[in-house]
């Protein structure tokens, strides 16, 4: 997480749209009949003319670039079908990039990219369990990233939809059921979380994995439940981060202190990023002792958390 201004999201205005004339086709090779384009608006990269029919290369590039920004746009199924039939090398590029991302590991931008590419491939195989599960996991991971907390509700909603779709394909996969339980728990649907976790435990044989699921079930049956639900607390952290980025430091500090006082989020999902942001808010509100304590709490969770190391050194030097 960086406490910095958010980048502007790409807009549809970055593209021009062109409606193919009736009967227009794309050539897809000597051994296949030409592909007739559907009568839907086609996105073209900014700068491409819309007065005359664009070249086949421009059509493919426009569809690909648009889907990479808006993988769930109107007509996405048709756009992906065109790519598969007329520009299969672009679909192959997506699959290759996903393999690279899996092998090397990813940062936030890589996770965002991974989610987009997986969503594109889902238009080709909407009932592929592996794709549904993997896309759901990626959305779930995004929901817990502090730089994405203002979108936590959207990410969790998408994750649940994908895991539910995967469950229709394979109703007994314990990993998928476990994630469904996690999403329901975060969003405060505790009874449903209990059902999914029990199903996951019933379909597991590994004793260690079963024990982990049973510990989750124990949080519902024997412990006090988070109030508010953890997703709401995460969203409040996202709001505090936005206030901090807008230089509304007092409001951000009040929000962060309230979440810290409640304690549920820090007990269930301890994260050095929380204490780092809390420390930044305290520092901006001239509470250097409190800021130093927050940065030390971040380092207690991750002694190599470089932003907290730098911030603590800065605060200590100012006090010295």
Description:
- With 320 residues, the chain is mainly alpha-helical.
- Helix content is 65%, strand content 4%.
- The protein has 15 helices and four strands.
- It has helices at residues 56-69, 76-86, 88-104, 108-122, 129-143, 152-169, 174-186, 190-202, 207-221, 230-245, 249-262, 264-268, 272-284, 288-301, 306-319, and strands at 15-18, 25-26, 35-36, 42-45.
- The strands form two sheets. The protein has a two-stranded antiparallel ribbon with strand order 1-4. Strands 2-3 form a two-stranded antiparallel sheet.
- The radius of gyration is 24 Å and the shape is globular.
- The model is unreliable at 3-9 (pLDDT under 50).
């Amino acid at each position: 997480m960086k406490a910095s201004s958010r980048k502007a999201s790409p807009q549809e205005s970055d593209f021009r749209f062109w409606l193919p004339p009736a009967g227009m086709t794309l050539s897809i090779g000597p051994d296949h009949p030409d592909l007739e384009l559907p009568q839907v608006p086609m996105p073209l990269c900014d700068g491409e003319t819309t007065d005359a029919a664009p070249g086949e290369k421009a059509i493919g590039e426009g569809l690909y670039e648009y889907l990479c920004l808006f993988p769930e746009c109107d007509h996405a199924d048709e756009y992906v079908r065109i790519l598969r039939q007329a520009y299969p090398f672009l679909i192959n590029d997506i699959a290759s990039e996903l393999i690279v991302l899996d092998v090397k590991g990813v940062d936030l931008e890589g996770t965002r990219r991974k989610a987009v590419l997986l969503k594109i491939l889902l238009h080709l195989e909407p009932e592929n369990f592996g794709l549904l599960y993997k896309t759901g996991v990626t959305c779930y991971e995004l929901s817990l990233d502090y730089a994405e907390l203002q979108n936590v509700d959207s990410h969790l909603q998408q994750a649940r939809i994908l895991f539910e779709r995967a469950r229709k394909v394979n109703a007994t996969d314990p990993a998928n059921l476990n994630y469904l339980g996690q999403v329901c728990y975060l969003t405060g649907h505790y009874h449903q979380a209990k059902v999914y976790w029990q199903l996951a435990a019933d379909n597991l044989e590994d004793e260690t994995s079963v024990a982990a699921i049973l510990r989750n079930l124990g949080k519902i049956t024997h412990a006090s439940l988070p109030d508010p639900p953890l997703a709401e607390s995460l969203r409040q952290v996202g709001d505090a981060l936005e206030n901090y980025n807008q230089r509304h430091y007092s409001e951000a500090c009040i929000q962060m202190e309230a979440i810290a006082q409640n304690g549920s989020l820090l007990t269930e999902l301890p994260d050095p990023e929380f204490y780092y942001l809390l420390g930044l808010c305290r520092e901006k509100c001239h509470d250097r002792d409190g800021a130093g304590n927050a940065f030390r709490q971040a380092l207690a969770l991750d002694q190599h958390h470089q932003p907290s190391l730098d911030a603590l050194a800065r605060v200590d030097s100012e006090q010295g």
